[in-house]
Amino acid sequence: MSQPFDEISAQLRRRHRKSARLKWISMGALGLAGLFLVLFFADMLVKGLPAFQQARIQVEVDYSERASQLPLAAVQENVRPLVSRGYLRLIPGRMDDNPELLGTTRMEWVLADGQVDQYLKGHHSKLRDSEQAVVDRLAAQGRAELRFNTTFFTRGDSKMPELAGIAAAAMGTVLTLLVTLAVSFPIGVMTAVYLEEFAPDNRVTQLIEININNLAAIPSILFGLLGLAIFINFFGVPRSTPVVGGLTLALMTLPVIIISTRTALRSVPDSIRHAAFGVGCSRWQVVRDHVLPLAMPGIMTGSIIGLAQAMGETAPLIIVGMVAFIPDVGGSFTEAATVLPAQIFTWAGEPDRAFIEKTSGGILVLLAVLITLNATAVVMRKKFERRW
Amino acid sequence: MNRILKTTVIAAAVMGVAGVAQARDQVRIVGSSTVYPFASYVAEEFGATTDFPTPVIESTGSGGGLRLFCNGVGEGTPDITNASRRIKVSEFERCAENGVTDITEAFIGYDGIAFAQSSANEAMDVTREQIFLALAAKVPVDGELVDNPYTQWSDIDASLPDREIAVYGPPTTSGTRDAFEELVMEAASEDMEAYGGEGYTDIRADGAFIDAGENDNLIVQRLAENTDAFGIFGYSFLEENSDSLIGSSIDGVEPTPEAIGSGEYPVARSLFFYVKNQHADEVPAMYEYANMFMSEQMISDLGYLKGIGLIPAPEELREQARQAVADHESLELADLK
């Protein structure tokens, strides 16, 4: 009599073991993913945090007649190689703007050369022994120190690592995404509204649907080639500008917005539509006054995620020329610009070692922005989501 | 929803207006990734010290740059293209076909290609022939061409160390690879009878040569991990990483700026940029930029570009090149042959 029970309990044990094994394997997978994430973040933080500090040194600046012709003469010879050339070359301009400077000598905190910066941070530098001794002496006197690197957030790219910043790329990203949003949001939402609310269910609309789903999975570089062929070569939109970059990214973002908008529209229950029809609303009124407002949180979430995706994109932008050297922070849609990921890509290829920390610093900023965007999407969904 | 619609319409309108009012006082530059660091340095200096806007520079590779440059004359085409080799006859002809008939060539200096390894090893002297034998797809053995049989450096010559042949190098799209194939592979094989007096540039694909991508920093990083391996990359990367890498002397010449500048170091190439003279009226800043690039403060032995890896040419050649740019000398097909 007991035999069937034994068999059943043995089977049960086996099944429990199996499910326990599955649980451990999936936890292991999660743990592994977490480990990689931690390693990546730790690496980026260790390499990138120094980028937010920059060496400055206090030197005597002599605003002489000679310095207005030959800026190098403004500082004494022993500290000359330690002062950033980016600072020195602006001296003649400053003297033109402020004539009262002429003939005066002032102690000033000035931007140090990138090599001094690397030396103070304990990295490999190309300073000679005698120059290192001068830096050591300055540091001992409190005349050389690491301060918060405002330059990194206020300036564009530079060949001098101490002057390189992400502001131009950040501005380019903002302008590009504005164009992307302005183009892809209305077109995407309207397309989705038509397909979901107005279109008859026939072969043609099914074909369109399949194509939209397909587009969402196409490698982004193809959109770059399309952008080059259509916007630049055919319509003559200027190369390297936020307009052409934004239009190209809009093509890429469209399917994401269409798909998420359709999902959001579909989740609005039919009873709402029926009630509106019941009181005599036209189809357009139903959509505009009832369905769209209710679906808006879902649409916004999808759009933000689509934009975040577009923001991290580099491949299509290489093709339309947005991976360029841009030292000036622009403000126009039609001036050449670059974007954050492209800036990181450029820095990663620089021979100068000081750019390693700039690269990682740029990645940290990009990650921070992306996390903020995605968190906004999650918060919006949680806050406005409605259950029917 | 209404508000969103209105905003988009306004934004679109603004964009349209801005698009029409587009001026072109900004110089547009494309071309070689080797020249890019130098060109962008000059561009930055140009933007900071003159009233002109900073030129826009894209790193497209020498070939890609010349393709864009030769697309025609006018608004949408670049004014200047950088090249880590001379313009080819075919490219010059394509330029002419598209109406780009007045080009000035500017020679700015040299760049060496380093054959380097991790400094954990002892320095190794190699000849171009030995590098060729290590990397060619087919090599002559007893007078016949066979698939490359060498796996250790010591198989090629007993004086070389007993280390596995592993070389990280640039992909075929790179100008550095072109130069390496020409200056090492072709030069070494021309005198070998087995190839019938013609240069042989096929690189073996059995794993000894490892295509490491366009980014030279990646090669540098890999050499730190794989201390047995060698890397092929631009001289400036060797200089910048002098604490962790040592360059091999080639044919007995160490890769030093002096040796590269004097032409003694055999694996060196000339760097150029090309100016489209037909844009002179529309883009006046173009010549100002070119003249600044050619000035002594940039390309001489005391110039800024030396600090970031350019190998200056001898004074006489610099003077000649500077004069050619100042005079807007037009490049002729005959000059290239």
From TrEMBL, chain A:
- Name any GO cellular component annotation: plasma membrane
Transmembrane stretches in the record are 21-42, 163-195, 215-237, 243-265, 304-326, 361-380
The answer, when asked if Transmembrane helix is one of the entry's keywords, is: yes
Which PROSITE patterns does this chain map to? ABC_TM1 (PS50928)
Domain of life assignment: Bacteria
Tell me the SUPFAM superfamilies matching this sequence: MetI-like
Domain spans labelled ABC transmembrane type-1: 170-377
Q: Which GO terms describe its biological process?
A: phosphate ion transmembrane transport
> How does the record say this protein sits in the membrane?
Multi-pass membrane protein
Keywords, comma-separated and alphabetical: Cell membrane, Membrane, Transmembrane, Transmembrane helix, Transport
Write one Gene Ontology MF term. phosphate transmembrane transporter activity
Subcellular location, principal: membrane
Query: Which InterPro entries does the UniProt record give?
Result: DUF3333, MetI-like, MetI-like_sf, Phosphate_PstA
Give its localization. Cell inner membrane; Cell membrane
PANTHER family per record: PHOSPHATE TRANSPORT SYSTEM PERMEASE PROTEIN PSTA, PHOSPHATE TRANSPORT SYSTEM PERMEASE PROTEIN PSTA-RELATED
Q: Which family does it belong to?
A: Belongs to the binding-protein-dependent transport system permease family. CysTW subfamily.
The name under which this protein is listed is: Phosphate transport system permease protein PstA
Q: Which organism is it from?
A: Halomonas stenophila
UniProtKB/TrEMBL annotation, chain B:
| Gene3D superfamilies according to UniProt | Periplasmic binding protein-like II
Q: Does the keyword Oxidoreductase apply?
A: no
Please state the span of the N-terminal signal peptide per the UniProt entry: 1-23
> Superkingdom, according to UniProt?
Bacteria
TM stretches of this protein:
none
Domain (PBP) ranges = 17-295
- The answer on whether this UniProt entry bears the keyword Signal reads yes
For this UniProt record, the keywords arranged alphabetically read as follows: Signal
The name this protein carries in UniProt is: Phosphate transport system substrate-binding protein
> What organism is recorded for this protein?
Halomonas stenophila
